[in-house]
Specification:
With 473 residues, the protein is α+β, with helices and mostly antiparallel strands. The protein folds into 2 domains: 78-115 and 131-339, no CATH class; 346-472, C-terminal carbohydrate-binding module (Jelly Rolls). The protein has 14 helices and 19 strands. It is globular.
Length: 473
């Protein structure tokens, strides 16, 4: 089969024989299908090819009633790699040690939710086949896998199955990748139920939030629609949504003016532009109403699946007042297999924290106004992902320094810790040792940018046993 029509089942529980059988069935269906195509609402000649050459960088297909689908919206591939599983388990364990319950909200794809607007029963322009029932089952399998890691998982499909009167295609816009305000409003009670079943709010944490329409409508500022208008012959109108506001009716003026209100929230939210407060989807507001509690929103627009998590894991706010719950809204669960390894090697130790002065500190040093420093490791048997480096910096705007780790077998790892582009300031650096270097760590060398000096601390840390155990489970 061609690349566009192939369906790869990368879930480890599926046998290769099943892949072949399913692919053959789809191939036969494709070959015997008629050439009929549903009448398109808009004129967009050669749309798939033009989309590949545009900022979409992938084929786009027009569905029914003005709906458009990127090929990634029509994926059947939902899988987790071994490194994904290890990262998530270790994150969960590290957060649990701080009293924080970890929750994930995997957002179903547009193809699964709005399949009724697909072309020709899922055959798009005789080029791509989408089998919604199969994709949905694969997505449900990922939900079950995440639940097996003892993570709190918000099951949107399961929630909507209990509300059969809801038209789940309303979860998304026809010409934008984000969930609609309807989708956000449905996701909030599903998330709140999962959270409230796993944490207990104190009396002082319970609020009186109310959400209501504010009487205003807004055009969706959709990059998707903008690019389509550059490709299509017809003009595609912007979609219009009602906007909402959420207020705490129990809030005093002093509380309203308290800058620490977000920091002290029992629930923290990380994620993408789906959840950013300045966008009109209003998920954080809906969630506050459903929880009747403060929610601190740390979502980032344009940050992909990892940058908000990176930012939050390194933030002082998290350390000063760890929340009872962390909710990770993640609309691209199929992208977890390409989660940046440098981010993973920084996020998990960041959750472990600065170990200076604790029982988990193997060796530590302070430095003052240095451009370059060296720590000669005095302990033996320091090797592998049970250990990490943690450095506290005085200048949170300094560019990321270069590290050189030397091992007693002659191997050396040179790297610069990744600072995601959406994360403007970081005053802490973390790096997890890798199992691919079997030797014992001999020395750590750090060099800051030319002409700059830095003051801070450097520690060699060992994870608590409960975090280490996740590597072997």
């Amino acid at each position: 089969m061609t690349k566009g029509a192939s369906i790869d089942l990368v879930n480890g529980g599926m046998a290769m024989a099943k892949i072949c059988i399913f692919s053959c069935i789809l191939g036969c269906f494709f070959l015997t299908s008629s050439a009929r195509a549903d009448v398109a609402k808009y004129s967009c000649p050669d749309l798939p090819a033009k989309a590949v050459a545009s900022d979409f960088s992938q084929p786009v297909y027009q569905g029914k009633d003005g709906w458009f689908f990127r090929q990634s919206d029509l994926t059947h591939q939902f899988a987790l790699t071994d490194s994904n599983a290890e990262m998530l388990k270790r994150m969960n364990s590290a957060l649990r040690l701080q009293g924080t319950k970890f929750f994930m909200l995997p957002v179903p794809t547009r193809g699964i939710m709005a399949n009724k607007f697909a072309q020709d029963d899922g055959i798009f322009e005789n080029k791509y086949i989408f089998e919604e029932a199969f994709a949905e089952q694969q997505f449900k399998d990922i939900i079950a896998m995440l639940e097996s890691y003892h993570i709190g998982v918000v099951d949107i499909l399961g929630y909507l199955e209990k509300h059969p009167d809801d038209d789940r295609s309303q979860y998304f816009f026809a010409r934008d990748i984000h969930w609609s305000t309807t989708g956000a409003a449905w996701s909030a009670p599903a998330a709140a139920l999962e959270i409230k079943n796993n944490i207990t709010l104190n009396t002082e944490e319970i609020k009186n939030y109310q959400t209501k329409k504010n009487g205003l409508q807004k055009s969706v500022n959709s990059p998707t629609n903008l690019i389509l208008n550059q490709i299509c012959a017809d003009r595609l109108p912007s979609e219009i949504i009602d906007t909402f506001e959420t207020k705490d009716n129990s809030q005093s003026l002093d509380a309203f003016l308290d800058d620490n209100a977000q920091q002290n929230a029992p629930v923290h939210l990380i994620g993408t532009s789906f959840s950013v407060e300045s966008f009109a989807f209003h998920f954080a507001g809906f969630l506050r109403s459903e929880l009747q509690a403060d929610v601190a929103d740390y979502a980032l627009t344009g940050g992909g699946i990892d940058q908000s998590l990176y930012d939050w894991s390194h933030s002082d706010a998290r350390l000063k007042s760890p929340p009872k719950a962390l909710l990770w809204e993640i609309p691209y669960i199929d992208r977890l297999p390409i989660f940046p390894e440098p981010s993973a090697r920084q996020i998990v130790p960041a959750l472990g924290g600065l170990c200076t002065g604790t029982a988990n500190a193997i060796q530590e040093m302070a430095y003052d106004k240095q451009n370059k420093l060296i720590m000669n490791v005095t302990k033996r048997n320091i090797s592998g992902s049970s250990f990490y480096l943690a450095s506290n910096l005085s200048d949170d705007s300094m560019r990321v320094p270069t590290f050189k780790l030397s091992y007693d077998d002659g191997q050396q790892e040179d790297f610069s810790p990744r600072r995601p582009e959406r994360v403007l300031k970081v005053n802490k650096l973390f790096w997890e040792l890798s199992d691919i270097y079997p030797g014992n760590l001999k020395s750590v060398e750090i060099e800051f940018e030319p002409g700059k000096i830095e003051t801070g601390t450097l520690a060699l840390c060992k994870y608590p046993d409960s975090v280490i155990q996740q590597t072997t489970n």
